[in-house]
Amino acid sequence: MAKARVLIRPKEGILDPQGKAVERALPALGFEGVEHVRVGRMVELEAEDPAQLGELCEKLLANPLIEDYEIQQL
Amino acid sequence: MIWGVLQFPGSCDERDAVHAYRLAGGEARLVWHEERDLRGLDGVVVPGGFSYGDYLRAGAIARFSPAMEAVAAFAAAGGPVLGICNGFQVLCEAGLLPGALLRNAELRFRCHQVELIEEGTGARLSIPAKHGEGRYNAPNELLDQLEAKGQVAYRYADGHNSNGSARDIAGVTNERGNVLGLMPHPEHAVDPLTGSTDGLRVFERMSGILA
Amino acid sequence: MTVGTPKHRELGLTDHEYELIVEQLGREPNDVELAMFSLLWSEHCAYKHSRKLLSRLPTAGERVVMGPGENAGAVDVGNGYAVAFKVESHNHPSAVEPFEGAATGVGGILRDVFAIGARPIAILDSLRFGELDSVRSRHLLDGAVRGIGHYGNSIGVATVGGEIYFEEPYEHNCLVNAMCVGFAKTAEMVRAAAAGVGNSIVLMGASTGRDGIGGASVLASAELGDGDDAKRPTVQIGDPFEESKLLECCLELLEKGLLVSLQDLGAAGLTSSAGEMASAGGVGIDLDVALVPLREADMEPFEIMVSESQERMLAVVEPERVAEVQAICEKWQTGSAEIGVVTDSGQIRILKRGDVVGEMPVEALVDGCPLYDLEPVEPGGWIYGNRATLAPGVSAEDELLALLAAPSIASKRWAFEQYDSVVGSRTVRRPESADAAVLQLPESGNAIAVSIDGNGRRVACNPYAGTVEAVLECAQNLACVGAEPLGLTNCLNFGNPEKPAPAWQLDRAVSGLADACAALGVPVVGGNVSLYNEGPDGPIYPTPVVAMVGELPDPARVAGSALVAAGDAIALLGPFSPTLAGSELAKQRGELDAGLPTPDVEKVANACRVVRDAVRAGRVASAHDVSDGGLACALAESAIGGGIGCRVDLQPLRERGCSPEEALFGEGAGGFLLSGERSALEDLGAVVIGEAGGTTIEIAAGDRSLVVGLGGAESAWRSLGERAER
Predict the structure, then answer these.
(1) What is the pTM assigned to this prediction?
(2) How many CB pairs under 8 A join B and C?
(3) What's the complex ipTM?
């Protein structure tokens, strides 16, 4: 069984309301100079056939219209 | 009695809470999240809604506001604090209440009337619940402690726990008993025109803490 | 991009339209100007195929405070208060990305309402998808419902009603129509017209990115290489948190009298807002795109002008008040930037750091688009398909259960429980507890009722009659809660108007809408048109969605639709003459065909008055309009709602000439199902047909009588959730 971690994040250029809200809140909490915050999801799984992972990401884990994904083989 | 209802960017039910307190025979005003001064207030409500959009984690950003710092001090001094729904989430994130609220087991936001059992008296209250992240959760040892110390305030009645909360817990208090958080919305159960009036009991309980 | 195709055609302009632009400018347009014209002269913005028809609609009335042409319509509800409302479509974006499409649809209609200074107090939505056995339709339904819930719940406006229909003709073109209702002090409402030469133009809210640029991307001057995903036009993402802040900010600014005018940014972004503000005010506007806060660094002027980034508003502010405005925007953590100035040039000038990069006369941009006449041709018969899902010869019981389980008729609880219907403390009648949503207005001492309706299939049978029926259905729903209609808004969802059959459908439907509104004395205060809803199999059902707002004096006197007590008499009131034409039963039998009787508007209106007055006087226990699935379904719904069975005999309908089947399952306007004290119902002129009680639903209808258990009926009626989540 192959272990993998999939990181899913909003596509560059797409509005990321979460990232924007977090980024905006940071200075008030004393954190300056932090920018370009993007908030996504992380999915961990084990797959018998790692070749399926791409399709799995495209069809279910990510919304290819608005998200990018990165598969990390562990 | 004057209650302060906090208002964060994204709060939704703050005006409803103010309105409810008036119907319950009290007086209430809004407290902007940047205000640190709670003088003149007899109690505080952290209201429902989507403070900061629920972004990152529900309540995670609101808990750092200046008003919440003041609320922590107010609570430490024994003042009554009521957290409703998002307010409950904020109080848990702030460590003023034990446990955490997770995504509903059904994975959907659900708005429906639920029945609660008031722990201790067995009174049955019909109150609307409307949330997507209301599943109460805490490690078993902590849950045992809460039960032992009488900190469980409300449980969902049989068949009414649709979010999967541990031990059917709908609301808890802190150890001292002056801070109460619950997921359902008592402020939406105070007017016979819009539903049940069982929510008044929750406000009366809070007022009773001062007595 | 096809080599050699002129840019204007790539942007959707005809050669003739291009020539008109050249004529009105006195020269060829540059890219910025072409982009702006292509959007404002598109069907969506210019209404070029529908504007002439819409002039048939009655828009005047003594209660009208704002009519068509403003961001939203509004009616006077007494004591210095007004209720604003409008419905808009977001069909095509929802078909691409249903969650964000529906969410941004809600966001957009909310902005239209608070742009006139009304605080949004309710949302309703009217949705259409293909049949639920299609994976795609289940996906669209799920996404749209979650998207509406996400936006409405987060911003704290109660979603109190709506409808969802499932029909094959919507398979490739779903419909997502969102309605918002707002409340304001009449004196504090604001119009969109820009005024005051020298006044500042302030852009508030979110920063501007490439959202929704779509087809205009052919104008991008940089070559799009493989690594340039970032430059491709992006899906509009809604941020309800941003809108929540913007909404509070705008209402505070208006309350403090700091704005001369306000306009929301929707389709065609800055181009249409600035254009419409200038046109309404008879002024010119200079905008400098270098002053627009951007989300992406290297945007070109045309992109900035056509971007459809959400959660933005445009305001006209006197120069000495700009600092105050910006301070309030700061307080609410929402952006603000002075981006231009009102002029007396009659031109829209786009500048970049002071250099003019585009300019055109306001009139040419906003009103210069040619308006087209339709070429309607009535089709020879039924142009849609038929699919039988009900075996022939089944019992009346099985027919009733099949109708109750039909996704279009079944309880929509699975959907509406995903919406917060109580926030705001105004909701007196939550979804499915009465025929219309009811919201209390303690400030003005009364209440309002809202209903949104439209059965595309019946309109397809006869666009004129079907549309008249839709208007009557709305009025009937309002009557059931004791409300008198004050105004109507509508969204006309149709196919390609350049084709003969959809053109005919649109033409006849608008006439039906006009005639019904005129006969009822209900003005049209605003609306929206969505055309070109066609798939490979042809056009959607012609779907004029109509919504009415009505007032009622006492929110404590509002009948529900459910039976209340065993022993109550059940009665039928109104000129109900049901037939199977266009009915759900005909659909399930695969027998749909052209033809629908035209209702007698006056008789239905009279019945509405009787029911309304009876409800207000507390003379009925329950009131329910008979619609989809006919009388048998209406009875079942009332019984299930109250948890009480019923026993009725439809002989009175038989005596009017209905066959047993027509009496049970026939549809048509003018039927009210009432329950209460027997003599009270008879005094109204209603015909008593039976009584509430027991645990079964028993309906005698000649040789098609039926008996079903209440539990079985409820299971069928509550089956939508499992079908939706398969």
Answers:
(1) 0.95
(2) 82
(3) 0.96
